[in-house]
Specification:
The relative contact order is 0.04. This protein has 1063 residues and is mainly alpha-helical. It comes from Malassezia obtusa.
Length: 1063
């Protein structure tokens, strides 16, 4: 009951005091949009449901109709095409076909239909027959395995419907439609399911695939890729289908009966096929690896395999135009495939004999950077066909025809060789080089032909006929250094040079390969204008060639933006060779030529130098800055202190100084020797500064002290200094103990250590110790005896590496002559130094024997009876080592003797002394960074280690002498210089050792001797001997009164070999 009734019947207003407002206008609009979207979604759902229901009903009805048609087919039998029932049953056959799933009963019905009188049916019901043919082709493509033997029935039916002789208009129309519906794709799919045996079914497929070329005769200028499928002429469509489908079928030829193989080779329009492949290649961008044509068949290894199998036998009958086109297609197809395809061909069955596949491990140019996916495992037949591409038989045929049509085909065969050498692994590419260079079979089967070029003739022809006078050569030989860089850069990026670069690349590869087995006596002719017996180029031609290669290599290192690490990398125009691989090839040949020139100069003075004096002014400092930056990056110096000492360089600065270090490490000879010696010393000074090492006697640098008995210098030196390792860079003080057990007088300010180092080197490099062996010229190299490979002896090699590293670090010359090939290994260039000419510095008798073997005119195998083994005698026992696996069973023949020579050279120069060299270089690298040594050549390194072999220049010594207590005009000084001039060269070296502890003068003259050579007055007592302080290069000379008196005392002093007490 309401007790608060006021008499009013109006409802009371409810007032909300919570402060909440009603929905805003934007909220109302959003709500409206949401409702509208929901209605739209519901509408779409209804429409989708309607379409799904309609599709389901259509599918159900179609399936029901197909079942009814199939059931009706089962109840009747086929009649003649003239009967109306035939047409009705054919329509039932069409309606019962289901393209998405295989129906065995339907396939059998189609086969039954195909066995009827379909030839007559084509004349009456061409449209129905064409539809059944389309269904058969679809089933062959989609269900070739399930069809089994029924597929052969379909192919036989197609052969009857599509005759080759006098086809009617309906038959031609049907064939045109079949081509459009994928005739060749269907045949390829079916052939791929057949067993790997020569079956008639495969032969029928090939016969049918060739029918269009008989029905539509005559070549066509219209290619199917340029027009739509419907508008393409039938022959063009057939050619495209045959190439894209049949020629890309794996193991095609092994499945064919021999008559079918013969028919295929005879009826295939090979020239049109070649031209079609060249057209397909135009859609492929070799630089970016992009292809404008979808599913371009040129990327299939089976296409190359089948093309080589069908084309290699035709080479001998090709004219110039055909051969050029054939070579261009082989080049294209190799360029499009990744190198891993060709590597798979040499994994199990090498192209050449084992002696070649294991040999010639030269620096491999960088592999092609193809982005193609990894191919499936290639079958044996495909690998065999691909290996035929680089077989001696195929190469000889190509060389013979190319020689016959040299003017039209040399550029094409060079492009082919460049592609081959780039994509094939070294085991195959080396065989290719050998075959091209020497013109015979590397496995021992003589295949000489009279029209093949002579040994080295290809090199001579390429140089004189195609490179020397080419526009590319003119570009690479600019007038000034700046012009050379600009011209070279243009040549490296100009597509117009695409035909010239492959010739230069092949020339460089072939000539570099020839130099590996060419001795110096074969390299140098008697007359500069004539070629030597085995050298295809004259010395004057080599000067021109080396100048061109020098300019090219310098530009590639100096302009390092050309050779980048981007993907894909920049390529040599017209090839798949990256510019980095070009640089490696050119550098290798350039180094080989410079090595010959260093041994026996044939180039004019200054030929190798590239920079002007103005450029050299800033070169040293730029290199030092770059070296510091590289060291900081390698050590991970990211701390503020490290960056304060070596602040980060700007990209512009790095771009300026970076190439200089590249030049020094790879082609150092383009910089004058004096500049590089200064750079080496700057490297050492920079390293000492980084390690806070001071050579000042009174500095606080950590100094190591060693007490050495004079009669046991080597043993005591190793015991006390070897454990220091890299700390041997720090100063070392030596205290000698004389024969009476007493310390010798004197404070080691550097001179005593130099005397210790000189005496140590004289003892440990004595061949009687068993660590070293001397050649004919008394040059030393590690002893290959098994004794020297014992762990205790290897530790001695490590110690000696550290000792010579210490000598280089301190700038001390040592009196030891090392063999040329061993010095070369210090530089890390073993890939081109292990050649026949280097062998002369190891064993001159072996070198002469191998040269005789190389030039032996008789029956090598029967007269010499050699095999691929070497014999070593130790302690009266002979040990035989195989140069290659199974070498004892491989005779040395006229054909494989070059490989034998290479193997022997490599074994003697590298493998036999590998542990000794590794131990030595381990010790050497602890004190001398290997990068520092790469600024030198072998002969320059010899000078840096041992000094120059030139006689001591007394005029230079006198010009850089200071005097204490004397004047240069004093009689005692005059008598001294006159006495010194009468000494023989050996005594002068003994004098230099007496006053400086080193018998050889400084590299760049006595102006670099620090401290300078000094002569100090030692009193008027002429009975005294002259004495020396080697630590300060000081001679203490009494005031002798005659030249004879001075000469007598001087000779006695320098030959006494007394210790430090004498001074």
């Amino acid at each position: 009951m309401e007790y608060n009734f006021t008499g009013s019947s109006r409802p009371q207003r409810h007032i909300n005091l919570g402060g909440a407002a009603g929905p805003s206008a934007s909220q109302l609009a959003a709500q409206a949009r949401m409702l509208r979207a929901e209605r739209q979604v519901q509408k779409q759902r209804n429409a989708a449901a309607t379409r799904i229901q309609a599709a389901f009903r259509a599918h159900s009805d179609a399936a029901r109709v197909r079942r009814q048609c199939a059931a009706e087919l089962e109840r009747g039998a086929w009649t003649a095409p003239s009967n109306a029932d035939w047409e009705r049953r054919t329509r039932l056959l069409l309606f019962s076909y289901r393209a998405t799933a295989y129906d065995s009963r339907h396939a059998e019905h189609v086969a039954t239909w195909a066995q009827g009188d379909i030839d007559a049916a084509l004349e009456r019901h061409s449209a129905l027959v064409a539809l059944i043919v389309r269904n058969m082709l679809q089933m062959l493509v989609r269900f070739p395995t399930q069809l089994g033997r029924l597929g052969a029935t379909y192919v036989d039916a197609l052969l009857r419907l599509l005759p080759a002789d006098q086809p009617t208009a309906p038959q031609q129309t049907l064939l045109t439609r079949a081509l459009r519906w994928g005739l060749h794709a269907a045949l390829s799919a079916y052939v791929a399911t057949l067993p790997l045996e020569r079956t008639n079914e495969a032969g029928a497929c090939v016969e049918l695939s060739l029918r269009p070329f008989a029905v539509f005769p005559g070549p066509t200028d219209t290619l199917a890729e340029t027009v739509s499928d419907a508008a393409a002429p039938p022959r063009a469509s057939a050619l495209r289908g045959f190439v894209a489908s049949l020629l890309t079928t794996a193991q095609l030829l092994p499945r064919l009966p021999l008559p079918s193989v013969t028919a295929l080779a005879a009826q295939l329009p090979f020239e049109e096929t070649t031209e079609h492949l060249r057209t397909l290649g135009r859609y492929f961008d070799i630089a970016t690896r992009d292809d404008a044509l979808h599913d371009n068949p040129i990327h299939s290894p089976y296409l190359l395999s089948n093309y080589v199998a069908l084309g290699s036998k035709r080479v001998a009958r090709m004219n110039a135009q055909q051969l050029r086109a054939y070579l261009e297609v082989l080049t294209l197809l190799q360029n499009t495939l990744p190198p891993k395809v060709f590597a798979a061909c040499t994994d199990t069955e090498p192209t050449h004999a084992p002696l070649d596949s294991a040999a010639m491990e030269i620096d491999e140019p960088s592999a092609s950077t193809s982005a193609a996916p990894a191919p499936e495992r290639l079958d044996a037949s495909t690998r065999r066909n691909l290996r035929a591409l680089v077989s001696d038989t195929h190469l000889h045929a190509l060389l013979a025809q190319s020689t016959r049509y040299a003017a039209q085909t040399r550029a094409a065969i060079c492009a082919f060789l460049v592609a081959t050498l780039q994509v094939w692994p070294s085991s195959a590419s080396e065989g290719v080089l050998t075959t091209v260079l020497y013109g015979y079979d590397s496995v021992g089967r003589s295949t000489h032909a009279a029209h093949l070029p002579a040994v080295g003739a290809m090199v001579r022809e390429l140089w004189r006929g195609y490179v020397r006078g080419s526009s590319l050569a003119r570009q690479l030989n600019g007038a000034s250094s700046t012009a050379r860089l600009v011209e070279t850069r243009q040549a490296l990026t100009d597509p117009a040079r695409a035909d010239e670069w492959p010739v230069l690349l092949v020339l460089s590869q072939l000539y570099g390969r020839a130099l590996l087995t060419m001795g110096d006596d074969e390299f140098y002719p008697a007359d500069r204008l004539q070629t030597a017996g085995k050298n295809p180029l004259t010395l004057d031609e080599l000067v021109t060639l080396s100048g061109m290669l020098r300019n090219l290599a310098f530009a590639l290192y100096w302009q390092q933006d050309l050779v980048n690490d981007a993907a894909p990398p920049a390529l040599v125009p017209g090839t798949v060779v990256p510019l980095g691989a070009l640089r490696e090839t050119v550098t290798r040949l350039l180094q080989q030529l410079h090595t010959r020139d260093a041994r026996r100069p044939f180039t004019p003075d200054g030929h190798w130098h590239m920079l002007s004096q103005q450029d050299l002014a800033s070169f040293i400092q730029s290199v030092i800055v770059e070296e510091r930056e590289l060291f900081a990056e390698s050590q991970g110096e990211a701390s503020p202190g490290a960056r304060a000492r070596h602040p980060m360089l700007s990209s512009r600065t790095l771009a300026f100084i970076g190439p200089r270090l590249n030049v020094l490490h790879h082609i150092p000879f383009v910089i004058p020797f004096e500049v590089r010696v200064e750079i080496f010393r700057q490297f050492v000074r920079s390293d000492a500064e980084r390690l806070h090492i001071s050579r000042d006697l009174f500095s606080r640098t950590n100094r190591h002290r060693a007490t050495v008995r004079r009669e046991r210098i080597a043993e005591d030196g190793m015991a006390q200094l070897n454990a220091l390792g890299p700390r041997l860079k720090e100063p070392v003080e030596i205290v000698f103990i004389d024969q009476f057990g007493q310390p010798e007088a004197g404070i080691d300010g550097g001179g005593v250590f130099k005397e210790f180092l000189t005496s140590l080197v004289r003892q440990v490099f004595d061949t009687d110790r068993g660590l070293w062996r001397a050649n004919e010229r008394q040059e030393l190299y590690p002893n290959p005896h098994s004794y020297s490979r014992q762990p205790e002896q290897l530790e001695w090699y490590t110690f000696l590496g550290r000792i010579l590293g210490k000598a280089l670090y301190e700038g001390i010359l040592v009196d030891v002559k090392l063999a040329n090939f061993f010095l070369g290994k210090w530089l890390g260039h073993q890939s081109y130094l292990d050649d026949l000419a280097s062998l002369q510095s190891l064993d001159a008798d072996l070198y002469r024997g191998l040269i005789q073997l190389k030039n032996y005119p008789g029956d090598v195998e029967n007269d010499l009876a050699l095999n691929f083994t070497v014999a070593d005698e130790e302690f009266g026992v002979t040990h035989t080592t195989e140069l290659v696996p199974g070498g004892a069973e491989i005779p040395v023949t006229k054909e494989n003797r070059l490989a034998y020579i290479y193997h022997v050279s490599r074994y003697r120069l590298s493998k036999q002394i590998e542990p000794q060299c590794r131990a030595f270089f381990q010790g050497l690298s602890e004190l001398i960074d290997p990068r520092w040594l790469r600024v030198l050549s072998r002969d320059e390194l010899r000078v840096l280690v041992s000094g120059t072999e030139a006689p001591i220049d007394l005029t230079d010594l006198r010009a850089h002498t200071v005097y204490g207590g004397y004047h240069e005009k004093d009689l005692a000084v005059t008598y001294f210089w006159e006495a010194l001039e009468t000494l023989d060269p050996a005594s002068r070296k003994a004098f230099l050792r007496f006053v400086t502890s080193s018998p050889n003068p400084p590299l760049l003259g006595f102006g670099e001797l620090h401290p300078q050579f000094a002569i100090r007055h030692a009193g008027d007592d002429v009975t005294r001997l002259p004495t020396a302080s080697t630590c300060v290069n000081l001679l203490k000379l009494p005031a002798y009164t005659s030249r004879e008196q001075c000469l007598e005392k001087l000779r006695y002093a320098i030959h006494s070999e007394a210790g430090f007490d004498l001074s």
